[in-house]
Amino acid sequence: MGEKNICDIFSEYPEVIYGFTDIAYSEYASAYKSALVFAVPHGELLTIETYSEEKFEKCIQDAQKVVEIILIQLKDMLDEHKIKYYIPPLAQNNEVELTAPFSFKYAAINAGLGWIGKNDVLITTKYGPRVRLSAILINEYFVYGEKVLTSNCPDTCRKCVDACPHKALYDAQWNIHARRSTIIDYRLCNEKRSLSIKTHGRKNACGLCMVACPFGT
Ligand code: SF4
Ligand code: SF4
Questions:
Q1: What is the helix (H) or strand (E) element at residue 107, kind and residue range?
Q2: Closest ligand 2 atom, CA of 161?
Q3: Three-class SS state of 54
Q4: Whose CA is nearest to atom 2 of ligand 2?
């Protein structure tokens, strides 16, 4: 069991990118052997010309609905085979460090789905950053993807950097050893996006640095 059943589920979603990684690096390593990571593309691949915050938010919500449907299918299959799994929470639970307990982004790099762009988000060759990520920890071994170690952003590209209205991006290339703080002023980004909580009841789904990316368009 395992891989074949998972591939069967994803064969219903040919647009979704997925892969496996061991999670020896994670605090969950003692309980689970692997993570399945998948990236659901936005229904509309917005560009800087077609962007609006509302459209971008809708892309996220629609992709999240697909994520949830896939997770239900995965859970049903794993329950049926009595395989232990855990779905880590998506949300940041640390508003100081702005981190989640299990980073989908880091798992995606380890599974070979893409690299981190100068905008500090996962960039896939096929969709650029226009994907919704999810992951499920599974207590099984799989064939793992090849870990991505360096950025594939052209050195000269700074479209995301220039798109940020708050100058939160430093025009810095990522590699596997890079610290997030060398790429983005994430507190500034979070602070600016949080300003809309009062007016809209949620953080601004700012996607300017994502829709500016030429990958995926
Ligand atoms: S999400 Fe918005 S505020 Fe944050 S870095 Fe990107 S463009 Fe700037
Ligand atoms: S806009 Fe350019 S620099 Fe920014 S993430 Fe995309 S390819 Fe990389």
A1: helix 104-110
A2: 4
A3: helix
A4: 157
pLDDT, tens digit, 9 for 90 and up, residues 165-198: 999 999 999 999 999 999 999 999 998 888 877 6
User: What are the residue boundaries of the structural domains of the chain, listed by start?
Assistant: 3-211
Of 123, 150, 164, best ligand 2 pocket probe by most atoms within 8 Å of the beta carbon: 123
pTM: 0.93
Q: How many Å lie between the centroid of ligand 1 and the Cα of residue 210?
A: 8
Could you report the per-residue pLDDT of 31-78, keeping only the tens digit for each? 999 999 999 999 999 999 999 999 999 999 999 999 999 999 999 999
User: Closest ligand 2 atom, CA of 163?
Assistant: 1
85, 165, 73, 160: which is closest to 122 by C-alpha? 160
Task: Report whether residue 172 contacts ligand 2, using a CB cutoff of 6 Å.
Answer: no
List all residues whose CB is within 6 A of at least one atom of ligand 1.
119, 163-164, 166, 168-169, 184, 189, 192-193, 206, 208-209
The answer, yes or no, to whether any atom of ligand 2 lies below 6 A from the CB of 164, is no
**Which residue has the CA at smallest separation from atom 1 of ligand 2?**
213
Q: What is the 3-state secondary structure (H, E, C) of 142-211?
A: CCCCCCCCECCCCCCCCHHHHHCCCCCECCCCCECCCCHHHCECHHHHHHHHHCCHHHHCCCCCCCHHHH
**From CA 69, how far away is CA 114, in angstroms rounded?**
23
Query: CA–CA separation, 28 vs 37, rounded Å?
Result: 15
